Amino acid sequence: MTVNTFAKACTDAPLLTQGLAEFVVSHPSQGWDADVDHAAHRTFINWLGCAIGASGHPTLAAALAAVADLEPSSQASVLGRMERVDIASAAFLNGISSHTFDFDDTHLKTIIHPAGPVASAILALAEKQRSSGRDLLDSLVLGVDVSCRIGNMIYPDHYDRGWHITGTTGMLGAAAGCARLLNLDVAHTVMALGIAASQPVGLREQFGTMTKPMHPGAAARAGLMSALLAAHGFTASPHAIEAPRGYAQTISTKVDWNEATDELGKRFEISFNTFKPFACGIVIHPSIDGCVRLRNAHGLQPDQIAKVDLKVHGLVLELTGKKTPRTGLEGKFSVYHSCAVGLMFGAAGESEYSDAMVKRPDVMALRDRIHAVVDNSIAESAADVLITCTDGRKLHVLVEHAIGSTENPMTDAQLDAKFNGLVEPVLGSTKAASLRDVCWNLSEQPNLVALFRAGCP
Amino acid sequence: MTVNTFAKACTDAPLLTQGLAEFVVSHPSQGWDADVDHAAHRTFINWLGCAIGASGHPTLAAALAAVADLEPSSQASVLGRMERVDIASAAFLNGISSHTFDFDDTHLKTIIHPAGPVASAILALAEKQRSSGRDLLDSLVLGVDVSCRIGNMIYPDHYDRGWHITGTTGMLGAAAGCARLLNLDVAHTVMALGIAASQPVGLREQFGTMTKPMHPGAAARAGLMSALLAAHGFTASPHAIEAPRGYAQTISTKVDWNEATDELGKRFEISFNTFKPFACGIVIHPSIDGCVRLRNAHGLQPDQIAKVDLKVHGLVLELTGKKTPRTGLEGKFSVYHSCAVGLMFGAAGESEYSDAMVKRPDVMALRDRIHAVVDNSIAESAADVLITCTDGRKLHVLVEHAIGSTENPMTDAQLDAKFNGLVEPVLGSTKAASLRDVCWNLSEQPNLVALFRAGCP
């Protein structure tokens, strides 16, 4: 990347479409530190677990039925399922399932969920063209870098305006990743990014409906198709991202070009990707984390717990103060249920938020021994947990940064446990274990045959 | 439609998604005046001619190659071609070809090209489910009404911001038309509109590239898929269009709700659709029209013309002042070439803008006898044409409103001639004639077999 690449175009905008294309095309394979590559492996395994975990959800069933109306070819896998579809539909469907549980990755600076659009698009393409695991990882790192940098550039105004930033930046990351995987040259990659720039997907108004997870799916599809169109000579503006009537200035009032260009090729946004340990709103993660920590440190059994006293930030009770949830979904809005399952199972994944789980007598009994009060000295990222045991012991922890935050990321072992919780109910423990092994060794896989063998029933 | 349907939702927004869905579902077949139905026939024949005319263009070839990468099923026709593809891809491809020549319809109040997204989506769906011509026309009128009303609501701020309004409203019209054709009930049609609302396509920066005509194609595809998803139970916000973080308020600073709701079911926007007689920028249409009028009135042959003096608006020479165009595309930016072919052939369609045509000695010779000056008394919609004949006669016309404007619409015979000029080079005159007959009698077609038999080679 030379300085000239970002010479001024119109007004103060750099030649961003061209510059990002040069970066995506020419950056060396694995041209980053080991911790970036490790973050890429973690991003991939977390995304894969989420996609497989939700593969039986009604959201995916409805989307699959619509795709089936097109009688698609059998080019690519729908993760966690027997059906095969064309690669664009696979990108669409896997993107949907990966975001259905709202349990996927978060780039905290922009609240983009970057893997959904990018990984869904490149994996479908990689399956068809028998790419190596290394090539897949390279395109994941570069694709995520493009969408998150674009996100940095327009966040928060763009998001505040009403756009669901995951799907309105993701088509650019997906196009970048697919262009890399297709070995497009710079000129064609410029076109791929340009074609994608016309297709942002997603409104925040859709939160709470199936259309929310459709956003990363449709962005994945749009990015993949943009790369295929470019490969066949389809044209777009070479300044589609930065021109006065291009993507950035049309879709956002704030555009900070430096956010897209600074330290390009040196700082990789995938390094800042975070993973949710618990399948609920982030506001109650510190409380759950405190319960799990005390449980594990003291080998606590539910019947040893006389009562639990939580001191929490005001938002916790405002958003998740439901004392007697009646469905699994309501359980996600109950700090009491969430802490109860944390104490009982050491986990609060999708299975701990089933309808059956919130009605289990032992869970309900433990839940009713949990009390929470708002304490103004407790930060939003913190929680104070005090457990009184039946033998009189008092166990205490103040969680300052919950597991899953930037300051306190999930360990690989914890990611494995999350993956197991999502994948084992769908594929069984043997396939889950084999898939986990493939993922952690993705960089060494000559092709993805083993991944797809393990990733579908 | 009751008044209550548009009861206030949030702030001052009416329940627009619900209201439009009720309208689309419940409005009677052919529930409008005969002139509205006539406008629908004209809209369809003009759209079909444009799509077939551009079916051999490199833009469509590149798009088709990308679609072929998906190995699509053979559900639906690509107009003017032998290939068959799935219905979503047919919507995409026919939408692209219909806008490739920039020769399609214009809803002047919003400069939306409404048929591209709507007709492309409904025709593909109609082919698969063997709909009648009547059902197709009903869904065309209603779909166009939805996208143009949404356009009225947000134009011009939305367009000024940089969006290509054809593709950013068209997915709603396409979803509405497809929902009608699928016989969805109100609840499912609300969802179809909601899903579509998340998928606006198109930036003005793409003008001059293949991505411009991709916008109506991608909007057609998005609208069709939204209706299919809704049919299978996929959900979206029931207030996706009007909510504070919904479509309208996210995508436009100006939102005039009344434009969407006033006289709904009484005034139909398709009535205001206009058609271009000449395959070039509208600014030189008055000059060409004047030349054609004098040619036809006096039976002029080129060798009878000594010289032509044009008085034109300043924009004409600023935008189309090219004296010696070297390619067909450059010919579109030459008032001289345009008037020469108008005088010689009585037409300025795509065939009059071929590379060969601008190099024809007789065309060049006539072109060089045409002179143009800016006259500040001439309006943008007007032109003053004075022809001096070799026998000394002076022939004059002042064109106030060119053919194709709202004040002076093309006649059906002129639309037929335009259609022939576009379709005959692709399908031959026999098929063109038979297709024309089908189109003018579309309302009586029990199915569309005859249309597709004539519409492909």
Ranges of chain A with pLDDT <50 over ≥5 residues? 1-10
Number of domains of chain A: 2
CATH topology of the largest domain in chain A: 2-methylcitrate dehydratase PrpD
Question: Biggest interface: chains and residue counts?
Answer: A-B, 60 and 60 residues
Q: What's the CATH H-level homologous superfamily of the largest domain in chain A?
A: 2-methylcitrate dehydratase PrpD
Number of separate strands of chain A: 8
| Averaged pLDDT of chain A | 95
User: Beta fraction of the residues of chain A?
Assistant: 5-15%
Major sheet description of chain A: 4 strands, mixed
Q: Report the radius of gyration of chain A as a whole number of Å.
A: 22 Å
Which CATH first-tier class of the largest domain in chain A would you pick? Mainly Alpha
> End-to-end distance of chain A, in Å?
44 Å
Query: Quaternary arrangement of the chains shown?
Result: homodimer
- Helix-strand string of chain A: HHHEEHEHHHHHHHHEHEHHHHHEEEHHH
Structural class of chain A comes to alpha+beta
What does this structure look like?
2 copies of one chain form a homodimer. Chain A has helices spanning 16-26, 34-53, 58-68, 87-100, 115-129, 133-154, 157-161, 165-181, 186-197, 211-231, 247-251, 257-261, 285-298, 314-320, 328-331, 335-345, 355-359, 361-367, 412-427, 429-440, 449-455; strands spanning 76-77, 84-85, 106-107, 273-274, 305-312, 370-374, 383-389, 394-399. The first copy, chain A, is an alpha+beta fold. In chain A, strands 6-5-7-8 form a 4-stranded mixed β-sheet. In chain A, strands 1-2 form a two-stranded antiparallel sheet. The first copy, chain A, has a two-stranded antiparallel sheet with strand order 3-4. In chain A, α2 packs across α4 (87-100) and α5 crosses α10 (211-231). Mean pLDDT of chain A is 95; it is low at 1-10.
